[in-house]
Amino acid sequence: MAHKAGTDRLAGQLRDRLTLSQRAVESEIERFAYLPQVLGEDARVLGLLADPSDMRVQEVNAYLANVARHSQADVVYLIDPTGLTLAASNWNLPSSFVGHNYGFRPYFTDAVELGRGDYYAVGVTTGVPGYFLSSRIDGPDGILGVAVVKVDMSPLERVWAEAGEMTGVADGAGIVFLSGVPNWRYRPLFTLKDVDRDRIETERRYDGNDVFGRVPLVSALDASGLTHMTEDGSPRLAMSTVLVDPKGWRLFSALPSAPVRDEARLVAGVVGLLTLVCLLLGLYSYQRRQLTRWKLEQNGVLERRVSERTSALAREVEERKRTEEELRQTQDSLIHAAKLAALGRMSAAIVHEVSQPLSALDNTLAAAGLHAGNHAHDKTAASITAGRDLLKRMQRTIKSLRTFSSRAKALPNEPIAIGQSVAEALEIVMSQAREKRVSLSFDNEAPSAMASVNAVRIEQVFINLLLNAIDATASMGNSQITILLRKAGRRALVEFRDAGPGIPEEIADQITEPFFTTKATGEGLGLGLSISRAILEDYDGTLSFSSAPGGGTCAIVSLPLARQPAQREPAE
């Protein structure tokens, strides 16, 4: 019984580890899922695929290097329909992908046939393993090429290794390609099938690693989910689960089972010894101390029950604390995911917003050079001043995006100007509004309104509401969104009035529910309004919706005003 209880305890720990590790793997992949498709919408990429030339190759190489640097992807590259790499972010390195043909890789063939592909393998050029995400790029006459992003998954291995966790990820064939235990990497999880061996060799999935010459970790996986294994003479209990996305991957984790066995033996010995002692004491004092023994036994039963109940309560309190912490971390991750999703929706407009001043800056500097050559000092100074203004404009845009995309730390609330937060949000979404030809007007009737909140979190609420208003207004062909800040008693009200189609009555009660969205698949996570409502509730705020005058929707954010410091009377 003690051994079974210990095994059940280990199984619970393994389930918790698998759950956390699964979330970590899925989050790492989701960070880059959008990137290949975004690359296929860039005019420079489309131009290179339509008409390759040395000048266009150099331009796209620089663009891909910039994308890889900002997104923190390992390599970003572009392949033509024959499988030949035309441009890559590592074009200037000895390990450059440019000129190599990857037409034999499944991520290329899947993208050509299905539109998208994903694949984990050791790079045939660099020898560095990674997860490849691909997306087909189509033109008017058919396929133009494939955009590929290589993601480095080794940070997960470092986290597992530093935490001392025996965790790994195996592909659909059963080869462990990711693990915090070095001895597990590129080792079969179980005995491989012949068809899987042939496919791995054909795809050159693990070039340079003798995956077929290594002993499998286990002979087979138990149908119960738990598997006993022995490595280096140490018994271990293992558990695995199949991931849904990426499809076919198996997450595998193990814990030493020797302590459970030793604990069971110790419990059995102690129980036997205590039984013997109790029998001897009972025989010795049965006649003389029968009543006393009965009282002591009753006291012992009572104390044992109190101790067991106390231990159970302590475990319940600890489980509740752990669950609350997981919920808080999950909420923070969802908030950050919603912010990244908002940035993804604005990506094209952001590129346009930065490229315009860059082009203007090039022309301004060229003019400054001509004026300097003509010794026109006044015109030269004016051109330089105009160029600096363009640089400042780009710096403001990039600073706003960097601040918004970062994770908001759990800082204490502090009084901030609500009008300033609205203005910061308008600065971030302005490029999206320009792209969709929607004008924004801000009427600040309460410039002194202050609220005790976290500035980055409340700014996310305003950005979510502004993006929804822009999408609704643009869909109706209108061009005006009005933002109004005013006071109502001890609360500040921020109204976002759009000229969209409004909210149908049948879904009015559902729009703030998690993952509910009216947008097409892939255009939204359905988390914006749900997260906005959760953030406002943390500050005793509310989010409500009503019909705007003249049609459309009016979203109203209500926040309690921060207390103003008392004014001191001047001394006489």
TrEMBL record:
<keyword id="KW-0547">Nucleotide-binding</keyword>
<keyword id="KW-0067">ATP-binding</keyword>
<protein>
    <recommendedName>
        <fullName>histidine kinase</fullName>
        <ecNumber>2.7.13.3</ecNumber>
    </recommendedName>
</protein>
<dbReference type="InterPro" id="IPR005467">
    <property type="entry name" value="His_kinase_dom"/>
</dbReference>
<dbReference type="InterPro" id="IPR003661">
    <property type="entry name" value="HisK_dim/P_dom"/>
</dbReference>
<dbReference type="InterPro" id="IPR003594">
    <property type="entry name" value="HATPase_dom"/>
</dbReference>
<dbReference type="InterPro" id="IPR004358">
    <property type="entry name" value="Sig_transdc_His_kin-like_C"/>
</dbReference>
<dbReference type="Pfam" id="PF02518">
    <property type="entry name" value="HATPase_c"/>
</dbReference>
<dbReference type="GO" id="GO:0005524">
    <property type="term" value="F:ATP binding"/>
</dbReference>
<keyword id="KW-0597">Phosphoprotein</keyword>
<dbReference type="InterPro" id="IPR017055">
    <property type="entry name" value="Sig_transdc_His_kinase_DctB"/>
</dbReference>
<keyword id="KW-0418">Kinase</keyword>
<dbReference type="InterPro" id="IPR029151">
    <property type="entry name" value="Sensor-like_sf"/>
</dbReference>
<keyword id="KW-0902">Two-component regulatory system</keyword>
<feature type="domain" description="Histidine kinase">
    <location>
        <begin position="349"/>
        <end position="563"/>
    </location>
</feature>
<keyword id="KW-0808">Transferase</keyword>
<keyword id="KW-0812">Transmembrane</keyword>
<feature type="transmembrane region" description="Helical">
    <location>
        <begin position="266"/>
        <end position="286"/>
    </location>
</feature>
<keyword id="KW-1133">Transmembrane helix</keyword>
<dbReference type="GO" id="GO:0000155">
    <property type="term" value="F:phosphorelay sensor kinase activity"/>
</dbReference>
<dbReference type="InterPro" id="IPR036890">
    <property type="entry name" value="HATPase_C_sf"/>
</dbReference>
<keyword id="KW-0472">Membrane</keyword>
<keyword id="KW-1003">Cell membrane</keyword>
<dbReference type="GO" id="GO:0005886">
    <property type="term" value="C:plasma membrane"/>
</dbReference>
